[in-house]
Design brief:
The chain is of the alpha+beta class and 152 residues long. It is 48% helix and 14% strand. It folds into two domains: 3-84, Orthogonal Bundle (Arc Repressor Mutant, subunit A); 95-150, Dna Ligase, domain 1 (2-Layer Sandwich), CATH 3.30.1490. Strands 4-3-5 form a three-stranded mixed beta sheet, with no helix packed on it. This is Ferric uptake regulation protein.
Length: 152
Amino acid sequence: MEQDQLLERARLLCDQRGLRFTATRQQVLRLLARHGNAISAYELLDQLRLTEPNAKPPTIYRALDFLLEQGFAHKVESLNAYLFCCHFDHAHPMQLLICDRCGNVVELHDKAIDSAFMEQASLYGFTITNKTIEAHGQCARCTSSQGNKHEG
């Protein structure tokens, strides 16, 4: 789906929820979507300052908190970074594959993994409050490029 359509869907959801989707929040969401991968708050702040020169760290963190609460973005805890989510109009299970070499993050939505994880937590009487599963490794592109370097 095109970026403008996603932003319009986000605006409509905010209207339906009775929330203020300020220009800054929209711009931060646009920057996240445009980046296309995990990005740190300070990298976003640097980009936001191109259009809002007076933006400070609290500006970006308030916008990111809003986007996280509304499901428009995900936090990649192990990278202390943020990722645009185009599936924000419905709740969905989420697992992240993170390449330690190139930094690419792949968002999965596997219900079987989610169900097994919840079942295991339940067996231990554990109540999950944040259910992001992150796995680190190497993506196919980095694995194959690394393999090509060792060939002689």
